[in-house]
Amino acid sequence: MKLFAITPDNITPGLLRDSLPSLRKRDASYLYIRMSATKLEIQELVAESGAAGIMPIVPYVLYRRNMPGPCGVHFKSSELSLLAQYAPVEAGVITASSHGSVDARLALQAGAKYVFVSPVYAPLSKPADTRQLLSSDDLQKLIAQHGEKIVLLGGMTEQRIQDLRKNLTGDFSIAGISLFFGAPAPAIF
Predict the structure, then answer these.
(1) Which pLDDT value is given to residue 60?
(2) If you count DSSP H runs as helices and E runs as strands, how many of each does the chain have, helices first?
(3) Domains of the chain (ranges plus CATH)?
(4) What is the reported pLDDT for 132?
(5) What pLDDT is attached to residue 171?
(6) What is the three-class DSSP state of 12?
(7) Crossing angle for the helix pair 101-109 and 136-146, to the nearest 10 degrees
(8) Which of 7, 10, 51, 11 lies closest to 32 in space, CA to CA?
(9) What burial class does residue 138 get, using C-beta atoms within 10 Å of its C-beta: 0-12 exposed, 13-18 middle, 19+ buried?
(10) pTM
(11) Residues of the chain scoring pLDDT < 50
(12) SS3 letters across 86-153
């Protein structure tokens, strides 16, 4: 299981820097840095995340604009058509977002190493999000075919992760915003 920490919308560069030791302690393998910041701040955060032993990932648009150094690149669900053509070869890892099993499979075929599928539960960080939850059957099929390349996102808590481990067969990965930046450290990590 890989763990992906995703920055909240309102985080500052200073707060993110202060969070790096906690993220490392909680075994976050990746940090998706999706925030407004200057080019220099993004470059520094990428370098500091890498130095903390956490692979930084930035959105495709930030990567193209800032060229922040050694990091992964994330394609939003609205950018999936760009993935095969514009995925940087030098990127440490390519990730993509999807809101359904068909898009998840297409993203993997187009070159994504990991695909965030959401929402699994109602997102804790976005209470106004009313998208339909992914069905257990769809999740199970994706996990059976792709294992830990499938990153479950949306409303993750310690209890929900334990429930998913009991109810889904196979390896999968987890991503979270509130899980890493807005909740007490889960004991399962």
Answers:
(1) 93
(2) 8, 8
(3) 3-181 (3.20.20.70)
(4) 81
(5) 96
(6) coil
(7) 20
(8) 7
(9) middle
(10) 0.90
(11) 184-189
(12) HCCCCCCCEEEEECCHHHHHHHHHCCCCEEEECCCCCCCCCCCCCCCCCCHHHHHHHHHHHHHHEEEC
For 61, list phi and psi in degrees, rounded to 5: -65, -40
CB neighbour list of residue 113: distance below 8 Å, 6 or more residues apart:
93, 94, 95, 149
Tokens of 29: 């393998």
pLDDT, residue 52, reads 96
Contact call for residues 174 and 149 (beta carbons, < 8 A): no
Q: For residues 47 and 36, what is the distance between their CA atoms, to the nearest angstrom?
A: 17
Q: Give the DSSP H/E element, type plus range, for residue 23.
A: helix 13-25
Unique residue bearing structure tokens 């994504």 = 112
Handedness of CA 28, 34, 36, 38 (dihedral sign): positive
Is 18 exposed, middle or buried (CB count within 10 Å of its CB: 0-12, 13-18, 19+)?
A: exposed
The DSSP bridge partners found for residue 98 are: 117
State residue 129 phi and psi, 5-degree precision. Answer: -70, 120
Q: Does residue 50 contact residue 70 with C-beta atoms inside 8 Å?
A: yes
User: In Å, how far from its chain's centre is CA 130?
Assistant: 20
For residue 95, which of 80, 110, 73 has the smallest C-alpha distance? Answer: 73
Cβ–Cβ < 8 Å for 79, 57: no
Query: In sequence order, what are the beta bridge partners of 73?
Result: 58, 94
Q: Which residues pair with 95 in a beta bridge?
A: 74, 114
How much is the pLDDT for 184?
44
